[in-house]
Structures are given as structure tokens and as C-alpha cells.
Amino acid sequence: MPEKTSIGGAGLIGILILAVVLIAVPHLVSFSQQELLVLLTINVLVVVSYRLQTLTGEWSLAHVVMMGAGAYGSALFAKSFGFPVPLAMIAGAITAGVIATVLSFPLFRMKGFYFLIGSFAAGEILRLIWKRFTDPFGGPKGIQRIPGFPEIDLGFIHIDFYDPANYYYLVLVVVLVSLWVLYRVEKSRIGLTFHAIHWQDKLSESVGVDAFRYRMLAFVIASFFAGLAGALYAHYLSTVNPNQFDVNTMVYVLIWTIVGGTSRWYGPILGVVALTIVDEVILRSIGVDQVRPLLYGLILILAILFLPNGLESLVIKARDALRNRGGANLPNGQAVARK
Q1: pLDDT in tens, 271-285
Q2: Angle at 247 (CA atoms; ends 245, 253), nearest 5 degrees
Q3: Rounded to two decimals, what is the model's pTM?
Q4: How are beta strands 239-240 and 143-144 bridged, if at all?
Q5: Can you tell me the distance from the alpha carbon of 101 to that of 212, in angstroms, rounded to the nearest whole number?
Q6: How far apart are CA 61 and CA 47, in angstroms?
Q7: What does the DSSP 8-state code read for residue 140?
């Protein structure tokens, strides 16, 4: 049966505090930090959608390229075919999902390390196509002057999405809805089947589960939301090129996900937020952001050695400690009943 969860009073208070922080934070930072907030929020969707892919046990090196497929698709639909930008974004995400569906047939004939290398090769083929063909992909320079999200002017209210604070709120709404959908998918029977295929694929197949179809489904759903993140990215920067979706970017997504942890849906979010703060705030403020690759490598090694379950394990330990402490403060009868 799908897992049922309930939110207690402390959980509701935490959600309210988080909501206040998310709404207020653009007004507490500088213009450049507002732009960073936009990119960070987009990256949250990238890593959480990537985690869905890993639930089946297959780690792809093409996820960032799927993000690029959504970015290129949305840019072309908006600029070349005249689609309204919101519709172009959805079409771009669908494009990424369609490409993932096509790639599934050769890729899921492989497993483990071979799937990892196969996904890398598939992603590089797509990037080389974008580089090779000037028409319609713009070649190495990519596509420029991509239309931005249209302004909202209702007379009494005017919202210009070229303002990073306004675009942040747009991205935040899209990402929160997407995270809710991804969470519901994981907690559904489909998500439980993903887990079963990961841990006992042969046993799952023996009881009638089509492992290929479910692996493909996870790949397509993850690629759709990665493509949606790419569309948000493209229409914010107004430009897109193949170098934005290379293997170096994919390595950062891997590190964010591993450092954050993958056993809980919020693990990758912890990873991308923590490392972005370290990278963009601390390193840049002291002027040594050039050591980013070295630092990321060191953080990855330390996380594997001392936090094999990621930053989420610290949250779980802290939560369990609070529960135990709360139970210890209750009378014996109530403590037993609570357990």
C-alpha cells in the first residue's frame, strides 16, 4: 500500500516558517543574489527530478542534456513557431519526455555501469547535434534573443518578469507544483514499484512487473521535469547553447544529489542549497571561487566517508532525537502509548 503520512503541529509550523522565508527572501538580498535565487530554484527541480530517475537503481549522465532538450525545444517553439511562452515551456518539457522515450529503447537494454556510459554517449550525441546544425539549433553559439515570459498588466497590477524577483516567484510556483507531483508519484504504487525494481528487479519481474516499462516511465517523467527546468532557464537567460549542458554541469548535479542523499525526496534539495551557499556565497565573498572543482571533489570524498547517507541523515537523526526527547518528557504511560 502507498505510504500515508500525516503532518503534526510542529510540521505545520515548519511549513509556515518555510513559506514566509521563501516569500520574503528576494526582498532581503541584492539584485545579483536574486538572480542566484532564480537559478537555485531551477536547480532544485533538476536534482529532485533526477532523484526520481535513481529510484529504479539507474543513474543517468544524460539528465542535464534532457534539461537542454527542454530549453532548446521551448526556445524553438517560442521563437521559430510563435508559440506563447507558457505553452512553449510545456511543449519543451514534452519534447524532453519524447526524446527520453526514444532513448529508452536502446538504453534500457543495459544496466548499471553500462547504462551510465550509454546515457553519457546518448547525451553527447544530442549535444553534438546542437553544435553541428546551425539551423535550427544555432550551432556552438546556440539560440539567442529567446522571448521572455510575457508581462502581466491588469491595470491595477503590473508584473514584469524581467525583474528577477518576479521571475523567482514564477519559478517558485512552477517548482513547488512540480515537487508536489514528483512526491505524489513516489508515494503512489508506481513509486513503490520503482523502489521494488531497484532492490529486487528479478523478483519483481517474477510476479509480473514489467521492469523495462517502469524504468522507462521513471526516465520519461524525470526528463519531462528536467525539460521544464530547462525551459524556465532558457526564457530567463534569453539564450541557450550546448556548453550549458555539458558533462561538467552533470557532475555538479551528481554531487548535489549524492551529498544531499537520495533516500528521502528532500535530500537532493539539501545538497543543492548547501553547496550553492558554500560556492556562491562563501567562496565568492572571499574571492576563491576558482577552487570550486577542487572543493566539490573534497566535499564529495568527505561525504562518502563520513556521511554515506548524505545530509538528509543529519536531519533524520535530529528529528529522531527530538522525538525521543519529547517522549522522555512524557509520563511513562503516555510515552509507552506514544511508541
Answers
A1: 999 999 888 777 776
A2: 80
A3: 0.90
A4: antiparallel
A5: 12
A6: 12
A7: G
